[in-house]
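Researcher: I'd like a structural prediction for the single chain below. Treat it as a standalone chain; there are no partners to consider.
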Amino acid sequence: MKIDHLVATRFQVSESFLKEIRFKQGDFGAYPESEGFQKWALSALSLLREVFGDGSPAYQTFKRGHENFRYDFDDFSALKGIFFAAKSDFENGFLGKIENVVTGELLGDFIHLAKSSLNEGYKDVAAVLASAALEDALKRYASSQDLDVSEKIMQEVVAALKSKGLVQGATKTLLDNMPKLRDYAMHANWDKLTPEDVRSMIGFVEEFLIQKF
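Model: Treating it as a single chain, here is the predicted structure.
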């Protein structure tokens, strides 16, 4: 899984937060509720900073719009426009500084967002985030150990790591269950994933990042 796939997943998650925003009717029209709006806006702000950089027009314009937000529909539409323009730039290959992002930090942010989503009751969102971070972390670690896993599925990556003795002890035992949980998440088999499963996956990735990155 390449780093641009991770970013694409983040854009999808942030867009899902956007769709969950509820609106109230005021004297001057509809306006977004604070809780849902702030959840989306902070997610988008963090994403734009990571992808395009602190000094980028996308990040700076969104940041100013967020700081001066008046909870009216025009301001909300303006921020949505910035977000989707940035998403379009990413999808068309204008990655800003993304290739220079430190892998461990980006994956750590994925896990932080996964934990927050799980704590707020969004199990499925958390599962997708944790799965993306898990697969990318395993592949990057395998590549750093001179294993060619670029075209391999996760089960093959795990087998390659185990055959080289690169995972041992408790990590090796826990890792055996991870491909199954990843497949459930990535194929939307939500009924087969419990919050405890997702929490286990998040905990595994956290520990793996500490040990290997």
